Amino acid sequence: MAELLANMFQHAAITNGVTVRVSVTFMPDQSRVTNERWFWVYHIRLENARDDRIQLRTRHWRITDGRGIVSLVDGEGVVGETPVLDPGATHDYVSGCELTTRTGSMEGHYGFSREDGSAFEVAIPFFPLAAPATAR
C-alpha cells in the first residue's frame, strides 16, 4: 500500500532529511477557459526522515505562467497550518493554483525549524502545470 501511495506522486525532492512529494491534477470543472482561467490542485506530502522533531513555519512559491510571468508567494505555514513532524511522520495537504495561461509551473521551498529554534529550508520540487490541449 505504501508503494502504491508513493507512486501517485509525480515529483519529489529531498533536502536535509525531508522529502517533499507532489502530485498535480488539472481541474477542468473548476477552470473557466473562455475567461482564460485554468485551475490545478496539487497534493503535497512531507516526510520527515530525520532523527528530530521539526515544524513547518513558512512557504515560498515561485509560480511561472505560460508567458514567463513570475509570481512570488510567501506566507506562514500551509493552508492555515504549521504542522509538527516527529521522526518518521508525514503530513499531507491539498491546495490549488489558478493561472491565466494553459501552462505554467511551480517550485519553491519551505522554512522549517528544529526543536532548538534553528531554521533550515527544504526544497519544493519543480512541477509543471499543463492543461490538456482540448482545454482551450
TrEMBL record:
Task: Please give one Pfam family short name.
Answer: DUF525
GO terms classed as biological process: error-free translesion synthesis
Q: Which SUPFAM superfamilies match?
A: ApaG-like
- ApaG domain location is 12-136
Which organism's genome codes for this protein?
A: Croceibacterium mercuriale
Name of the molecule in the record: Magnesium transporter ApaG
